[in-house]
Low temperature requirement protein A (Streptomyces bauhiniae), 388 residues
Amino acid sequence: MSSVPESLNLRREVSPLELFYDLVFVFAVSQLSHHLLEHLTWRGAVETAILLVAVFGTWSYTSYEATFLDIKRDVTRWMIVIAMGLGLFMNAEIPGAFEDRAWAFVVPLLAILLFASAVTALAARTDALREHFHRTLVWIVASAPLWIVGAVVGPEPRLWWWAAAALVDLTGTWLAHPLPGRTLRGGELVFDAEHMLERLRLFFIILLGETVLTAGRAMTDAPVDVASVLATAGVFIALVCLWAVYFGGGEDVIAIVVASSTDRVRAVRLGVNSAYLVLAALVALAVGSELAIAHPTGHGSVPLALLLFGGPALYLATTAWFYRATAQGAWAQRLVASGVLVVVGIAAVWLPPLASIALLDVILVVTAAVLARAHRALTRSLREDAES
């Protein structure tokens, strides 16, 4: 008989506390978007990427841990509440992290990572899970000195120290925190994959929501004229299409794949790994949208083209990789659309923003329609395979 408590095998809905926790990251995404907008240079982009890895890392770690521990346990609830409070302080310091508030950003960051992982390593109900989070703690401790040294030095060298720290954290997450002779065996873990996938879906909606808020703020500041209204409407259409690319049948595909998998942890890990790039893509689109709505009839530029077309292109390329690795279908269409966006984005350097938004909408509307059919066909195929 299994030593794992039967309660761990039950499907759990996402709790109100987890949704409450996610609100801190609505703030974080807004802060990241504003940081990139205020520092629209290559260095600013690298700074935003480093901060993004740190911020999303805290969300992914704590979300994993809450899923493994069961959000109904008191220890899990207290962990989430404390992480939420620390996260609020951390995210508030994003604008000054590369200036004079490095410590105010790093201290809550490391506190969240060390505290949440230590709690899980002690409170987990199985040996395999405790062993996994012991390894996770080793990786966090390995990157902590890099974050600390980066906070001590000046802004210029800080970029390199924190880039190294973010790379260590990202590598650990992507590889599931291996140590010599000790790796994650997902098939041995009792894991509510559907719960974690629902967390990812809700986080994706948060990301889209930030772009909606950005478009709304930009429209508030823009003059009420035809060009601004059309630009805002165009951004909204693009967001609806990006929503439909996944929720237009794509989530059904992933649900079937996960339900029939012998290693559900792997599918979720791939989803979390891809979410780093999806977050970067939608932050880029949010900033590009704000610039385009503010000056819809202005001149095109390389930064605007990179943001408006590069963001959706990265999003589609990332999800193409995810669907190729999990469902083995509905990925080629995404990759083709990503390539088209790159080509058109090059031409958009010389186009006014309003024309660029119109081209973006045409590509995304066609992509969403094509993928809706591809998802239906793939869903039928997967169900037939599961029943045979």
